[in-house]
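User: I'll paste a sequence; please echo it back and then give the predicted structure.

Assistant: Echoing your sequence first, then the prediction.
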Amino acid sequence: MTSLGLVALGGAAGASLRFLVGQAVVFPMGTVAVNIAGSLAIGALWVLLEGRASQLAPLLITGLLGGFTTFSAFSLDALRLVEAGRAGAALAYVAGSVIFSIAACAAGLWIARSLA
């Protein structure tokens, strides 16, 4: 199977799992649980798969965990910047991502409500 196929397969499974958690856990704690579990899993998988030529990374990291929560990739990126000695860049990445993502969401809400 191609990498794209593996990502698609994993993404479908991850999104389905996220949906099930959201149904089982009261809002917004389902999102919190998914973000924490996904971040734990991506940290462990990154170490276990690092340096190995494997089709498991597209399936599990990009696909499954990407479909489950993109917060896990965000967390890993921030920590990789810190580990690379780029704490300032990590802080800017985290703050910018959160602030601009919330602002973009607010803009999207405003635009859609204005057009409705």
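Residues 3-84 form one domain. The mean pLDDT is 94.
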